[in-house]
Amino acid sequence: RKEVEQDPGPFNVPEGATVAFNCTYSNSASQSFFWYRQDCRKEPKLLMSVYSSGNEDGRFTAQLNRASQYISLLIRDSKLSDSATYLCVVNGGLGNTPLVFGKGTRLSVIA
Amino acid sequence: GAVVSQHPSRVICKSGTSVKIECRSLDFQATTMFWYRQFPKKSLMLMATSNEGSKATYEQGVEKDKFLINHASLTLSTLTVTSAHPEDSSFYICSAKRGYKETQYFGPGTRLLVL
Asked: 3-state DSSP call for residue B33?
């Protein structure tokens, strides 16, 4: 089983649509969870951290279910500029452990 | 957010030469830096973890003698691809973080093309 698994995509949605990405992780010792965004031929950039209580940042809402080892990202009112690859990322556990990346889900928002 | 730079942003070299890539944390001291590689349409793969003043920890399958990592200061880590071959052509990205709970911040990446 892969450490971090995501919907493969691609997701092609019209502007204004709501889209949800799912992610599962295998390491129950993981302590930190993130969604990163990566544009074509660019480095990943932090979109938001994910907290157990769920958190929202504008049009973006992230949820974490530790029992199910499941993470989600909801994007409301999609914009053309949201087109990118969204990476689900978890750390390896306590201490100075590296991040583990999912393969990413490609989103294309169409006018 | 924190700023991480990489240099060069792009390099083309002949097979057999060595290439050095620098990663700098510009506005914070990075206790740990990570080196990743990403092939086209593939996910980021961690190559090694670099702690200042100590030897890097390499991931399985990454040759430490081929990919030399030096983390001489809290703001600089270098990756040297020795005797580069065409199959080493990839997008190399570093990241840095301040403490073990801190978010990782990525450099802009270096595109390496080995002819």
From this structure: strand
